[in-house]
Design brief:
By secondary structure, this protein is of the alpha/beta class. Helix content is 29%, strand content 17%. The chain is globular, with a radius of gyration of 19 Å. The two termini are 29 Å apart. The structure holds S-adenosylmethionine and iron/sulfur cluster (SF4).
C-alpha cells in the first residue's frame, strides 16, 4: 500500500500517540495547577484499541512510534503497551517521552519490552530551578535514570529543555559541562503558546536564535539536515560527547519538514499540534475487521493537513496545553 503523503509532498512515517492525558507534574508552562480531568472525559484507549490503531498506521507507512502524554508512565500498563507496540510488524523505532519519574525504576523493563529511544524532559540542571518549574524536587533521581539509560546502551537518549525567560535561559554553561561527557542529544525547545498559557507565554517566551548564536560563537557546528529529520536544527562540537538541537517553532520553514501525525489518548487524530479539529478514530478501533475502514479514514483526512501552523497569529487551535494533545 502507498505510504501516506499530503498535498505538499510531505510523508508521515512518524506517529506520536498519547496514551494518557494525566500527569504527576505541574510544569509551569503546561499544567501549572496539575492535571484535573474534565467532567465526562472518556477513558484512554485500551491496549486492544491501541493495537488496532497501530496496525492501521503501519499499513500507511508509519515505522516510528512515540508514546507520550500527559505522562505515559502514569499508566499502569505502559510496559504492556510498549510490548504490544514493539510486536506490531513495521514498528521499528519505539520511543517514549517522559518526565522521567519512573525512569530509574522501569528502564530495564521498558527496554526488555522493545523500547529503543527515550526523550526525558529536564528543564534545568539546577535542583531548585527544576523544582520550581515542574513542582517536583526529583532532578537527582531523573538524572540517575538518564545515566542508567546511557550505561544500558539504549540507542537513542535525548533530553528536552523548554527555554523560559529569566527562569532557565542562563544555563548554557551548566549544560555544556554536562554535555562534555554525556553522549546524548539535548534539545532546547522554544516555549509555544497554547490555549491556556497566553499570559505566561508573553512573560516567558524567548527566541532560541540568541542561544544558537552563542553556540556558533563557541564553535558548535550545524549538522546537515537528514532527509527524514524532524524540526530540530542539530549542532555538534568535537570537544563534547553530546549534541544540541534547537526546536524553534516560530522560525521560518518550521513546518516544511513536518513528518508526524498525532493521536490523542482518546483516539482523536490530530493533523497538527495546533490544528483546529480532531478526527475521532475510536469508533473504528472496535473490531479487527475495521482495519480497511480505519486506513481509509486516515488517508481521507490527510488532504486537510495545512501547510503550516498559525502560531504567529496567536492561533493555537484546540490545544489548551500540550498534555492534552500529546506534546
Ligand atoms: N510528560 C512528558 C514530558 O514532559 O516529557 C511527555 C508529554 S510533554 C507534553 C512533551 C514535551 O512537550 C515535553 O518536553 C514538554 O517540556 C514539552 N512542552 C509542554 N508544553 C510546552 C509548551 N507550551 N511549549 C513548548 N514545549 C512544551
Ligand atoms: Fe506533565 Fe510533561 Fe506537561 Fe510537564 S510537560 S506537566 S511532565 S505533561
Amino acid at each position: 500500500m502507498d505510504a501516506l503523503s499530503d498535498r505538499y509532498g510531505r510523508r508521515f512515517p512518524y506517529l506520536r500517540l498519547s496514551v494518557v492525558p494525566a500527569c504527576n507534574f505541574r510544569c509551569m508552562y503546561c499544567l501549572p495547577r496539575g492535571y484535573h480531568a474534565a467532567a465526562g472525559t472518556a477513558s484512554p484507549l485500551s491496549l486492544q484499541e491501541i493495537t488496532r490503531l497501530l496496525r492501521g498506521f503501519v499499513q500507511l507507512g508509519m515505522h516510528k512510534l512515540r508514546i507520550t502524554g500527559g505522562e505515559p508512565s502514569v499508566r499502569q500498563d505502559l510496559t504492556a503497551i510498549l510490548r504490544t507496540a514493539a510486536a506490531v510488524p513495521g514498528v521499528i523505532k519505539l520511543a517514549i517521552s517522559t518526565n522521567g519519574t519512573l525512569l530509574s525504576r522501569r528502564l530495564h523493563e521498558w527496554m526488555d519490552s522493545g523500547l529503543n529511544a527515550i526523550n526525558v524532559s529536564v528543564d534545568s540542571l539546577d535542583r531548585a530551578v527544576f523544582a520550581r518549574i515542574t513542582g517536583r524536587d526529583l532532578l537527582d533521581d531523573i538524572l540517575r535514570g538518564v545515566d542508567m539509560a546511557l550505561a544500558s546502551g539504549l540507542p537513542s537518549v535525548k533530553l528536552n529543555a523548554v527555554l523560559l525567560r529569566d527562569v532557565n535561559d542562563h544555563e548554557l554553561p551548566a549544560w555544556l559541562d554536562y554535555l562534555r561527557d554525556h553522549a546524548l542529544g539535548l534539545r532546547f525547545i522554544e516555549l509555544m503558546q497554547t490555549g491556556d498559557n497566553l499570559a505566561f507565554f508573553r512573560e516567558r517566551h524567548v527566541r532560541a536564535e540568541r542561544l544558537e548564536h552563542e553556540l556558533q560563537n563557541l564553535g558548535w557546528q550545524a549538522l546537515p539536515r537528514a532527509a527524514d529529520a524532524g524540526p530540530a536544527r542539530e549542532y555538534r562540537h568535537p570537544d563534547y560527547a553530546g549534541r544540541i538541537g534547537i526546536i524553534a517553532p516560530y522560525s521560518k520553514d518550521f513546518c516544511t519538514g513536518c513528518n508526524r501525525l498525532r493521536v490523542t489518548a482518546v483516539g482523536d487524530l490530530r493533523l497538527c499540534l495546533f490544528g483546529e479539529f480532531g478526527i475521532p478514530l475510536r469508533p473504528l478501533l472496535q473490531d479487527d475487521d475495521q482495519l480497511d475502514e480505519l486506513v481509509g479514514a486516515i488517508r481521507g483526512q490527510i488532504g486537510h493537513k495545512e501547510q503550516g501552523h498559525f502560531l504567529h497569529q496567536g492561533r493555537t487551535g484546540i490545544t489548551p496545553q500540550l498534555a492534552s494533545t500529546g506534546g
